[in-house]
Amino acid sequence: MKQLPIIYLLIISLLAGFSSLAQQKVYLTHATVHVGNGTLLNDATVAIDSGKIVLVQQSPSFKTDETMGKVIDCTGKHIYPGLIALNTYLGLSEVEAVRATNDMAEQGGFNPNARTIIAYNAESKVIPTVRSNGILYTQICPQGNRISGTSAVVQLDAWNWEDAAVKKEDGIWLNWPSQFRMKGWWGDPQGYEPNKDYDKQVQEIKTYFAEAQAYKGETVDKKNLRFEAMKSVVSGTQNLYVRAWYVQELLHAIAFAEEFKLKLVIVGGQDSYRIADILAQKKIPVILDRLHELPLHDDDDVNQPYKTPSILQKAGVQFALSMEGFWQVRNLPFVAGTATAYGLTKEEALAAITSSPAAILGIEDKAGTIEVGKSASLIVSSGDVLDMRTSNIEQAFINGRPVDLNNKQKDLYNKYKQKYGL
Known about the structure:
The protein is built from twelve helices and 18 strands. It is α/β, with parallel strands linked by helices.
């Protein structure tokens, strides 16, 4: 038997060393732990082992030493679950003005077979900026057309899309027809008028879903890729995300989902507060779009977008906050912070970007809260993560692995800070 060259033996031993380091048990001690489900633990310890959370214990007398593993003193600091950003196209767009870097939409009206996961760029320069604000998971969603395609869930520290994928096919996205259309064009708006084709467009959707339900791939020689992609949605086992805003559109989308027995999730939903009791009764989740915008109606309270999360919370509606886009996603925790000034508690707002998104995505067994048995994806901050004035993410872990929190903006800051001797 040939002996391995000495260089190979050295490489093998180094890799083994790195592997053991990655699997080393880590204790985060004496922290304020925000579990993500409304529970707050003071002076608590979280232990990480083999990528999982193995201990969450509130005990000032809990003793650790270096023989047990790596001990990190988090006195005065806060531990949060990794934040989850819904309704984004992070990793699908790099420079909006450069068409070649945008890969979040396909041509044609109905594209349920368009999969965002295979277009995901894990090396996007935008990802580190988002990650450094505590966002460790994101839902990447298709854009445009009537049926945009299929979304996916990814974690934000990966070599490629296969490595990033948490859920390769999360659900199909439908843009519900608007009851109003803009006069003129977006650069020269002249007000709005009723959409005369609304009923026709709704009927086109119903016809398409009826055909998808009738489709049986096993009985045909040549499979229809679009209808194949619809199988999980029309069978009610996968989410149908419907972008809709006005109250009548929401009610029509709900009636449509009931007619076809679909697992509906409302996205956008600015008028959702008007039908909060219906949404709660029917157990329909809502992914609210960005709160930092003008109200939908001219006669709405100017603060209505800020108050909607509290109204949904009090009505018992399952909801999550989102920040549509890609680079904008870094501000998600501060959007949640705004909601705390208009009725939500801090822990309720945190749940809207952690445990609630995880439940909507169907990954609540892996992420969303700091509980034993779940993936060790969490962040450590020296301040309130929902407050842009004090938030300071010092450490992050994804699946128990320490994550680099550096990014291009920090590099530029340090570069020019030194240049001018500040």
